[in-house]
Amino acid sequence: EQNAIVRNETSRVLIIQGVAGSGKTSIAIHRIAFLLYRFREDIAAKNTLIISPNKVFADYISNVLPELGESQIPELGMDELADELLDHKFQFHSFLQQVFAILNKNDKGFIERMQFKSSSELTRQLNQYLVHLENNLFVAPSIQVGRVLVPASFIEERFKAFQRIPLLNRIPMVITEVQSHVRSTLQRKLSGHEKTQIYRALAGALGNVSLLNLYREFYTWLGRDDLFRMNNNVLEYADVFPLIYCKMRLEEVRSYQEVKHLVIDEMQDYTPIQYAVLARLFSCKKTILGDASQTINTYGSSTAEEIEK
C-alpha cells in the first residue's frame, strides 16, 4: 500500500489517511523524491511546496530530502500564506492562538462562531452571498456626456461582459468601454473634463465598498451579525480564510502557477473554506495527509471524505 501511494502518477489529488505511526511522513518524503526523479524534466524541487500548520513537518522533510539526493523543498505555514494573500494589510490571530482560545475560553459565542466557520455550510452560504453581490452590488447609472446619453442598460451590459474578471476589478474596464463609446459617437477625442465626468459617475456606482465591509455585510445578509467579532482591528483566525475566499472572488490574489505539486500536512486541521481557497489557489496535483483522530480543532475536523467533496 505504501509503495502504491509513493509511485502513484495518475491521481490529481491523493489523500492519505493514516493513524499515528503508520508511516505517513516517510511516505510523503519518498513520494516527493519519486515524483522529482520520475518527472525530473518537468518538475524541480522549487516547483514543489509544503503547507502545514506548523514548521515541524516541513522542516523535517526539507532536511531529509537532501539525504535522498534532492534539493530543499520550499515550505509555507498557513498563517504566512494568509498574510501574503491579504497583502499584509490585516492583523489576525494565529492558528495557535485559536487553539489556546479553545482550551482556555469558556465563551459560547466564540465557540459558535468557530463552529459555523469550520463547517461546509459557511462555504455554501458564502457562495450564495457572492452570487447576490454579483447581481446586486453594481447599480448602473445613465451618464450624460455633452449631447451623448449613455444608457444604464449599455453600462450594465458592459459590466456583465467582464464576468470572468473579479467584481471589484471591473470598473476601470467599464470606464474604458464607456469612454470609447462616447468618443466614437462624438467622433473626437474626449476632454479631460469629460473623462473625469465618466470616471466619477462609474467609480461611485459600486458605492463606498471595501473587502472587509463586504465580508462583514455577509453576516448581516445571513441575519447573524453576532457571528462576526473583531476586537482592536484584529480578525479572529476563523475569519481569515473566509475573507481570503471573498478576496479571490471579488478582487484577485496572486497566483502560484510555479507550484506543480502541493503537499498538505495535518489535513484534519483545515476547514472546508480553507480547502476551497487552496483548490482555487493551486491548480496543480496535490498530496494531502493526516489523521482525523488527531485533530487539534475539535469543532472542525476534516476527514478524507469531507476533503474529497
Please describe what this structure looks like.
This protein is an alpha/beta fold and 309 residues long. The chain has helices spanning 2-6, 24-38, 55-64, 78-85, 95-104, 108-117, 120-136, 152-161, 171-186, 192-203, 211-222, 237-250, 272-281, 304-308, and strands at residues 13-17, 48-52, 75-77, 91-92, 143-145, 148-150, 230-231, 234-235, 261-264, 285-290. Helix content is 50%, strand content 11%. The radius of gyration is 24 Å and the shape is globular. The two termini are 23 Å apart. The mean pLDDT is 88.
Which value, in Å, is the CA radius of gyration? Answer: 24 Å
Order of helices and strands: HEHEHEHEHHHEEHHHHEEHEHEH
The total of helices stands at 14
The unreliable regions are none
Give a count of the beta strands, DSSP E runs of length 2 or more: 10
Main sheet: strands, sense, barrel = 5 strands, parallel
Straight-line distance between termini: 23 Å
Shape: globular
Strand order in the largest sheet? 1-10-9-2-3
Rounded mean pLDDT score: 88
What is the structural class?
Answer: alpha/beta
- Helix fraction bin: 40-55%
Which percent range describes the beta-strand content? Answer: 5-15%
Which helices and strands appear, and what pairs or packs with what?
Elements: H1 2-6, E1 13-17, H2 24-38, E2 48-52, H3 55-64, E3 75-77, H4 78-85, E4 91-92, H5 95-104, H6 108-117, H7 120-136, E5 143-145, E6 148-150, H8 152-161, H9 171-186, H10 192-203, H11 211-222, E7 230-231, E8 234-235, H12 237-250, E9 261-264, H13 272-281, E10 285-290, H14 304-308
